[in-house]
Automatic annotation (TrEMBL):
GO terms for cellular component: cytoplasm. The keyword Transport applies. Pfam families: Fer4_7. InterPro entries: 4Fe4S_Fe-S-bd, 4Fe4S_Fe_S_CS, 7Fe_ferredoxin, PSI_iron-sulfur_center. Keywords: 4Fe-4S, Electron transport, Iron, Iron-sulfur, Metal-binding, Repeat, Transport. It comes from Peptoclostridium litorale DSM 5388. The keyword RNA-binding does not apply. Its cofactor is [4Fe-4S] cluster. GO terms for molecular function: 4 iron, 4 sulfur cluster binding; electron transfer activity; metal ion binding. Ferredoxins are iron-sulfur proteins that transfer electrons in a wide variety of metabolic reactions. Residues 1-28, 29-56 form the 4Fe-4S ferredoxin-type domain. This is Ferredoxin.
Length: 56
């Protein structure tokens, strides 16, 4: 099960460098997670100040 970044994202970028498989990239107003690359490790969720990354 991959993580998904919700609309709560404030586009701060804290999550992107934490992803060990480079599944996170800037999107249109918020960051996005490539579900095919995500390994469900939760590293992004651990650093997000607004809890935007959530398990799908």
């Amino acid at each position: 099960m991959a993580y998904k970044i919700t609309e709560d994202c404030i586009n701060c970028g804290a999550c992107e460098p934490e992803c060990p498989v480079e599944a996170i990239s800037p999107g249109d107003g918020k960051y996005v997670i490539d579900a095919d690359k995500c390994i469900d490790c939760g590293a992004c969720a651990n650093v997000c100040p607004v809890d935007a990354p959530q398990p799908e």
